[in-house]
Amino acid sequence: MAMQLFIGGACAGKRDAVTSRFPSASWHRLEAGQPLINSQQALATNTPLVITGVLEWLGALLERDDNDAQRQQWQNDITQLCQRAEGLNAALIIIASEVGRGVVPMQPEQRRLRDLNGWFTQDATAQADQVWYVRHGLVMAVK
Question: What's the pLDDT score for residue 16?
Answer without folding.
Answer: 97
